Amino acid sequence: MTIVRFASTDQYLDCAELVHGEDTEAAARALAERAVPLVQRAGSVVFRLGRLRLGIEDSRALSRAICEALRRALVAGGAPASMRLEHDRAQSTHVPSGYPTRTLLPHHDGQHCSYLTPSTRDDPSWLPEWREFGRSGYTTTPAHKMYQGVFIADPGEALSVTTYYDWLDLLTTVYAERHRVPAAEVPLRTVAEWLGRNLRAALDRQAKHGSPYPTIGAMLGVEEPMWHGLSFHHAEAELSGEDRERYPMSGPLAKACPCGDCVGDTARLFCHQTLLATGRDWRQFRARWEVCAPSERFDLLFGHNLTMLHGGLAGGGHRVIEPMCLVVDEPSGPEYEDWLAASWRRRLPVGE
Known about the structure:
This protein is α+β, with helices and mostly antiparallel strands and 352 residues long.
């Protein structure tokens, strides 16, 4: 039985003042000031715009206004002044043939160049150029996504639930368990340096595995090339003939998984990977780290794209989202390093 946990009630923000108050800009600013500490600490929030029962154009405009207010509040808290809002094209939901829904496995948005790394404040040996893993073969924009916003243009059928996973807790837990020390006694600087070594090793192996994305297994220090080279995005995706040939072990492993619940070749392989990397199969992984954030049409979900992983549980074929992310073009410089070091500590550089 899978344990289902939901985002806490304080992560759901009422937006009525945006339409019933006298000053929309002031209401958006107040919402942003309330949301920012929650995003830094808990990882995500949901702006309940759907309850306003507005049309799509008005709801989209309010979402953009909230994201701009968030950007200003975050910059005031020490995020890089160069951070900007990127409203990307709408994304529909591909459901693999033979399945009623699709599930997205945990990932960072734009993971070819947007993933948690050490700050040079914690690891002076780290080079900003290592924050770009793939320069081709990716599907989103080349901007470095610091915060991930999702405007729900159409929730789709079935559950269509966004899931979040606390990447900071996951990293610290796995490091502590491998080294047999209490997690509370592990300095964040040590975890950051460990993650950095794992990412550098994955980059060094890129000529062999060829992946434009760092996998969870790679970021957790798994060395077998197969766990670097396979794609773990759509749970139901079939293992390709090319991957079967390149990684002979993948075919047999895709037939059954450790937890026995997974549906789809990729899901079963991901289950093997989580067991190898974290000591937990996919069912146990979800029970420990998965938090569900249900939403309705025209809601805005907003989360920290580096300290959290996110996914999509049982999405229907008519689900449509519009990414509204806060990005920088160059993830480097004093402001970025200060912001990143503070994010590791679930805060902002200024005012907390």
